[in-house]
Amino acid sequence: MNDVEPSSTGLPSDLPAHAARLLHAVRQEQPLIQCLTNSVVTNYTANVLLAVGASPAMTDIGGEAGPFARIASGLLVNLGTPTPEQRLAMREAVAARRSVGGRWVLDPVAVGALPVRTALAADLLDVGPTVIRGNASEIRALAGQAGGGRGVDSTDSAADAVPAAIDLAARTGGAVAVSGAVDEVVGAPARVGGDTGGAVERYRNHHDAALLTKVTGGGCALGAVIAAFLAVGPDDSPAICAALATGYYTLAARQATEVSTGPGSFAVALLDRLAAISPDEFAADTGLSVVPATATDDDANASAATAATAVDTAATAVAASAATVETAVDTAATTESAAVRTGATR
Amino acid sequence: MNDVEPSSTGLPSDLPAHAARLLHAVRQEQPLIQCLTNSVVTNYTANVLLAVGASPAMTDIGGEAGPFARIASGLLVNLGTPTPEQRLAMREAVAARRSVGGRWVLDPVAVGALPVRTALAADLLDVGPTVIRGNASEIRALAGQAGGGRGVDSTDSAADAVPAAIDLAARTGGAVAVSGAVDEVVGAPARVGGDTGGAVERYRNHHDAALLTKVTGGGCALGAVIAAFLAVGPDDSPAICAALATGYYTLAARQATEVSTGPGSFAVALLDRLAAISPDEFAADTGLSVVPATATDDDANASAATAATAVDTAATAVAASAATVETAVDTAATTESAAVRTGATR
Amino acid sequence: MNDVEPSSTGLPSDLPAHAARLLHAVRQEQPLIQCLTNSVVTNYTANVLLAVGASPAMTDIGGEAGPFARIASGLLVNLGTPTPEQRLAMREAVAARRSVGGRWVLDPVAVGALPVRTALAADLLDVGPTVIRGNASEIRALAGQAGGGRGVDSTDSAADAVPAAIDLAARTGGAVAVSGAVDEVVGAPARVGGDTGGAVERYRNHHDAALLTKVTGGGCALGAVIAAFLAVGPDDSPAICAALATGYYTLAARQATEVSTGPGSFAVALLDRLAAISPDEFAADTGLSVVPATATDDDANASAATAATAVDTAATAVAASAATVETAVDTAATTESAAVRTGATR
């Protein structure tokens, strides 16, 4: 599937050519991607980056994470298992990265349901991640839309989180990628006068890659691939880099599904396919469509004005006191705690 | 092999039906299993849980481990690489879990031979794990039966550790699963008057899964599967949940052995088979037999009275001083240090 | 390829027999190898050791690493992700290991480009690792040859680092293994009078194992295999143990390449092949040649006198101040930072 529709918002009209160009550039430039990621998925994430053609470096200790973030080609910060040492290193890396104007990716694993990472995520959000990648529950929680007693909901589709994603993109000026059965990627609304109510760059990915949810790190590794595409497309928007990374990764996953007999052989085949797909093969099947601005965006724009406040509120509510924390967690449990359930490992 | 014998102690007489029901429930309910486990096996353990049909969450930092343990469906604490941060999180998680009456699994990796974890294990044992899973050396060491200058012995069969296992079960009121060429699972002795000298619920697993010893985390991941079975069988005894988890896991391992060409492909095939085995297929080949009370139990009952004291002694002896520590470790080395050798990674 | 040339320096003339004997011994003795290694590769390293026939133990916390290092059969210290806790444990382990005269392996991942590990590496070097294993950039940086504004260079071949390797071997009295398209292994120069200007034991490995660079931990795991070969060949020189471990590991890698369809299936096949190769099969294809002393050695001897000073200088230069650190790192970036790029994960 490759429904490249004419864009009404000045978006790229030739996604296949973009796709081939960026994948080729990853293979040629072998961008050095620094990952501060959770302990469950470090190995798989590094192997995914190697398979893609990039060079991983898991430099995540204090005193090294900052200097390294200045020179790396890309940076991923994933909150899956944020030990005190890693939290220190993450703050150091993000500050150093910002000081040199470098792009970086935030994966807010299980934010909203667990207190330590929720407070950390609010701080990191203030630094302005170039791309935020998460599932629908995490994106909504990060945008402060998980309140009202409902907690996070595992049955959210990615589309349900698009308004929250646009809120976040408006705040950071970057892009937000929401993973789901169909993936959604949005950029920051264009500024109209002093406002952010303009058109939104938006993509949808249609590759069927359901087995990714059966491999730990299946989602986390995508964050690293997005960082690699950002590194080699400095003149491309964060949204199109994130969309193309998603299309490529899920194309490999779909192909891997066809040759595997379960989640173990799928994870192995995914690495093989990531290394094997040529730029031309990717261009012929990006999986992406460009989504024109719709009524959904109007909803989003309406709520964008409250985004900054909402995020701060989310962090405050969770971090305020132990009692509040437990309430927040219990609330999440009541609604099946999907962000928690899947977030901590995928 | 599926020798379901009539039980003389009120044990379930229809293991196949139990087997099918619990495996079906894991797949349906997708229990959320929190794992505080060693850094070597986090990835494989998470992938095993996903393959089984459960949802892993490796939430193991202070400030999050406790709140999470209140809402998780299951909890595994594995002592393989207990950093200070993890030790803090383990104490927090276990206390929180107990406060809500939740079940949990303890895997006392290399206890007895290494000082930090031995002291920690003694404390955790006091909180009453629902199931303890280990190899024969670890179970004997945890029960305080490794003293007398012999240290731990790598040639222990699981059967040799059954008296120690019954001692521990009597103390915790839960079950103990001993891994070996033939696996042994025992429950707590029934109380007769104020004593614990009653009949013991006991199972034996006969599936040949020797290649599990060639994959790091092969044993550790079983602890997580036991936690998943405990989660979906709240009205089933800890012993039968642990036995069925063992039977299912080793059935998948036996099938994986048949299609693999070495330890690498075996580890991959194990994940595929764990996901593929149907409840009916498991029911037709549980691998389990019910073991009637025998003379072995008499030995165990005789020694049960000294169990609590022995465990405290083990921790004290190892933790008392550096000099003692080195003596204990040297002793283990003299007798080939099997718990150390295999325990730290499997 | 198996070009065993007559040695002019008293080196073993029958490499095939040595090869068969040491591999057989690993399988028989199952040496217990303690690994303090980076968080990215713990799992793969443990599985490589199990496949080889050794027993892994990732005992890397303070209070346990030291006592364990006294009793383990071998010890690997890998600086890939040196958290404060691991740095403490590494110092503890190496001191304990030295106190009992035990052999150990140092893998100085990304040394020279990152400040914390560079300072640590200088300290550990003083303790005298039996074997140092790294890529050309790391070996040159550790020997203090990366200064002068050039930083490390990704295009170094292993041969380019032989003078630096000989410098280091002269300082430690052990061996240095340099990984590359063709691997180089050197021993310490023989002492002539009070000087170290004598002949150098030297091997070259010719197996083509390029896919190892596409699997994270592909190089790191070789350090563990070297530790296993050192453990079972106490009367063999460090250099021949390191060379044979390299020949065996890369033979398995070459065979794995032939049966795999990408980096994912290669990593799996490597484990299968490591377990399958028989001592006789290895003897028939060690991949090794003995390198006679050449002019290269003269260069090395000339620079050996300055080695100790150079290493201290490297550590000082990087650790001196934040400003210096950033300069050093920026310099590395300018020259493509290959040690950083590949070192942190391989």
From TrEMBL, chains A, B, C:
CDD domains: THZ_kinase. Its EC number is 2.7.1.50. Signal peptide: none annotated. SUPFAM superfamilies: Ribokinase-like. InterPro entries: Hyethyz_kinase, Ribokinase-like. Keywords: ATP-binding, Kinase, Magnesium, Metal-binding, Nucleotide-binding, Thiamine biosynthesis, Transferase. Substrate binds at residues 58, 217. ATP binds at residues 133, 179. GO terms for molecular function: ATP binding; hydroxyethylthiazole kinase activity; magnesium ion binding. Catalyzes the phosphorylation of the hydroxyl group of 4-methyl-5-beta-hydroxyethylthiazole (THZ). This is Hydroxyethylthiazole kinase. It comes from Tersicoccus phoenicis. The lineage of its organism: Bacteria, Bacillati, Actinomycetota, Actinomycetes, Micrococcales.
